[in-house]
Design a protein that fits this description.
By secondary structure, the protein is of the alpha/beta class. It contains nine helices and eight strands. It binds BIS(adenosine)-5'-pentaphosphate (AP5).
Length: 224
Amino acid sequence: MHVVLLGPPGAGKGTQARRLAARLSLPHLSTGDMLRQQVRDRTVFGRRAAALIEAGRLVPDALITSVVRGRLREPDTADGALLDGFPRTAFQAKALDLILSEVGASLCAAFEFTVDEDEVVRRISGRHICRRDNGHIFHLRTAPPRVAGLCDHCGGELHQRADDVPAKVRHRLAVFRAESAPLSAYYASAGLLRTIDATRPADEVTDRLIAVLGPAPAAGGGPR
Ligand code: AP5
């Protein structure tokens, strides 16, 4: 069950991918999270990516594709994965098809999260994220932490991403329109596209996704 989550920044892809990962026992592959980890670890790749991420620009296709290829060869993704933030360009979409065919897998769905840009700016400007590895996501108005500034799950400090300021969000939206929005047609022509109204409350969005994907298998196996 390899699934792609498409949509603009702030559409709720990370929020839903985390929920689906828990409900369906599938790994959540967020290229944004992977890149931010490389930046924190100050790897060669992370140092190269840091300025691009902060400016709201995409990192080069060949670099991110090699990271995803490595990740999709790891055994925990053999039964599927939730791809959040990848692919983002036509090059990446074609590369993903190739990578999956190399490991004997294929995509079962590409969900397109639809939400208008004013709502994106509202969501991102209120987003606070746990600094610790779990990266739990909150929103000051719609999903506030129980204790201000602290993660409900681990007590870690919450912070705002450096690329979440309004001018950078507008730029990320422009990049999305130019580079990523055309992927919907790519997946529609493959018969894989499912549109999700991401303006609905998060619980409703989760229910809709689960309704399409099916529940987790019962212990001991069974159909999805
Ligand atoms: P990435 O981390 O992937 O950022 P993004 O795509 O811009 O998406 P976001 O994480 O901003 O939003 P989201 O849709 O996950 O929303 P969330 O669930 O947090 O990428 C960052 C950067 O890395 C890129 O700009 C680029 O530089 C680089 N990069 C990454 N992948 C790359 C690739 N493949 N190629 C090249 N470069 C790459 O929700 C947002 C807020 O809304 C939260 O506060 C949440 O609580 C709230 N919320 C969520 N759902 C709802 C709801 N239904 N109702 C109300 N509020 C909600």
